[in-house]
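[Backbone geometry]
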Amino acid sequence: MNMADASISFDSPIGAITVESTGEKITGLWIGQPSPDFGSSKVLREAKKQLTAYFAGKLTKFDLPYVATGTEFQKAVYKQIAKLKFGEVATYGEIAAAVGRPLAARAVGAAVGSNPVGIILGCHRVLGSNGKITGYSGGDGLPTKRWLLKLEGIESKE
């Protein structure tokens, strides 16, 4: 986790969600890692409200300011992921091509796994070739990714 100035944890259908912020920007979101709340932030209260609505199937687009830190390559990958709307998917290879590195699908996978603001920046929408679920670093891993995909009506293969 990072050096945030505020944090909030709450229960969700996929386990505890912890969201951290610095100033009024979200800087981290973790699944299954509850931590004590500290600090106070309007953006965290709004994040909890929007995430709760998302999990209830009542929100399809987050309107939250965030900072997704990483290398220049990771940031390029995050920019592509941010283009995916609720219910849309892309493959690791498609994202690799979009960032100008068509042979870097594995590197895209590593970047996706490093996403500091999962769910808000929908890395669960990235699948392997032929729509296969290849991995997920949040929560319980693949069961968590399957749950998120199902919530969004996304078909996937094992």
Notes: Helices lie at 42-55, 72-82, 92-98, 105-113, 142-151. The chain is about 30% helix and 15% strand.
